[in-house]
Every structure is written in structure tokens, then in C-alpha cells.
Amino acid sequence: MTGMPYTSRGPVRRALLCAAALALAAPALAQGSWRPRRPIRIVVPFSPGGATDILARQIAQKVGNGLGQPFIVENRPGGNGVVGTQVLLTSPPDGHNLIMASADTHTVLPFANPRLPYDVSTFVPVNGAAYTVFGLVARSGLPAADVGEVVALAKRASPPLTYASYGIASTSHVAGEMFKMLTGVDMTHVPYQGSGPATMAVAAGEVDVGLVPIAIAHPQRDRLRLLGVATGERFAMVPELPTLAEQGVRLVADAWIGLLAAPGTPREIAETINAAVSEVLGTPEMRASLQAAGFSVMSLGPDRFAAFLAEESGRWGSVVRAAHISIAG
């Protein structure tokens, strides 16, 4: 099976994560003179209970202690993240309002909906916190025991196999299209409203396969088949589960989640908040807690996060364009 350049992260990715590891091993950066004057709001552009919301709340519980003000999570779902993102645009760029953005809202959506009422590149990177680990899963009755057998089955299936995602133009959808391009197979996309329903659809045998968060799929392992993780290396939650690359498909489809500030936010503010967030993410307790929830910690500071976002835009955007993924906006 052949690889494609947008499916795996190159030297920039490795350098960023090495730098992040060094930063987590060292004491937190000295914070500047800026201090919040009131509670800091983290806008989550999705409903409660999803990966972005879980990560925001875990961070909010701990970070406020380091800045002298609490962090408050506010869910503002709607419009594939547009409603919550626009909240930040109407807030002053003074550090008291942040958004827990994701690859769905700030990497994929701008390509799928070019009529967005804002430019995501103008938001100020604060901390690239973590990424959600995706896994390829199959219904228990599918006659395929590993990724290679799924590919072989898909190539001869008529009608085509089906794959679930948690919504049109979601990272789950784009990951499925990445898989198709890499393997040369044809599969029919079946979107659901959320990662839970998409996973349960595979478990119930409604669809054949899906690329979904491994933390959502793992509790259903008795009802579906876990085939591999779509990461550069094995994930500690399921160390026995090989990567897709180990099975011949060089697919990396982890989806970032991180904090952004409103356009125009001063660098000093971003650096101060990042120092407090990085300190919390660097603790063994937080890393273990996030791993149990299906996350892999990155904790990239403003500069490294900005470079990472630029690389991610190219990686995901090329697939969105090639697969003609679109949302009418």
C-alpha cells in the first residue's frame, strides 16, 4: 500500500513534539506581569460531553490556581463550531476569553466552508494542548480480522463497504477519506451526529467500519472489533493494538485540540496563560488522566503551536479539497 505526503507529519511535527517534551520536563516558564482581573472564560463550541468539552474542563479545574482567577467553561454549540467561534470575535482581546478550538473547527471547517465569517488564521495561538487518538473499528460480523483484510474485502465488495463518521466535514469524515485515498478502496460515507452515535452504529452492525476516538470505541470492544490506531506510535491506553502504519497503511489522523485567544490579543497574555496551562499539563497526574480519556498530551506553546497549525492546515486541507468535502455556508 502506498503512502501520501499529507497523511503523516514530517520533521516539523517531530521537532515540535520533541521541544514540547523538553518543555514539560522543565519548570514552567516565568510568567509576565499580566494577570487576569476576573474569571477567564473558555468557550467550547460544542455540546457538553464531547472530547473538546472534556479536555476544557480538565484544564479549567487546575489552571486557575496558577493565575489567581478561576477558569469557567461555557458551551456554545452550533454551526459546526461557528457560533462559539464568533463569541470570541465579539469579546475584547484582553485574555479573559479563550476558545477551546479543534482540528474540526479551525483546520477542516475553513476548507469545507470557505464562506466562514472570519479568518481562523487571525486567532492567537495560546497552547496546543492535546490530540484525540483515533482508531479504526469494524462491526463484529465483518469477515476481516485486521486492516489488510478490511482493505482486501473493500476492494472486492459490491455494494461498497460503509464507514461511519461523527458528521460531514468532521475530522472523522476526513480521516475516512484519507483511508480511502491511501488504500485505493471505495467506501460509502454514513455521517452521524457525534462520535458516540457513530461508534454505536458500528457496534450495532449498521455500518461496516469507522474511524472514531479510541476512548469512545474501547468500552464497546466486546461489541465491535478494534483494528488499529491512526497515530504515529502505539497508544498507551491500548498498547496491544498496532498502528495502521504497522499494518501497511501510513495513516496518521489524530486531531488536535488547543486554546486560542481573540485576534489582537497581546503576546504577553498568550505567553502567561500558556505557562500556567503547560505547568498543569506537565504533571504526571494530568497526563495520566488525559490518557485515560483518550488524549495524548502535546502542550505546545504559542510559537510551536502556530507552526503546528500551519502544517495541519496543509495536511487536512489537501484531503478536504481532493475528496470535495463541503458544507453549505
TrEMBL record:
The keyword Signal appears for this protein: yes
Keywords: Signal
Secretion signal, residue range per the UniProt entry: 1-30
Gene3D superfamilies for this protein: Bordetella uptake gene, domain 1, Periplasmic binding protein-like II
UniProt keyword Signal, yes or no: yes
Listed name of the protein: Tripartite tricarboxylate transporter substrate binding protein
Record family assignment: Belongs to the UPF0065 (bug) family.
InterPro entries documented for this protein: BUG (IPR005064), Bug_dom1 (IPR042100)
Domain of life per record: Bacteria
Pfam families the record matches: TctC
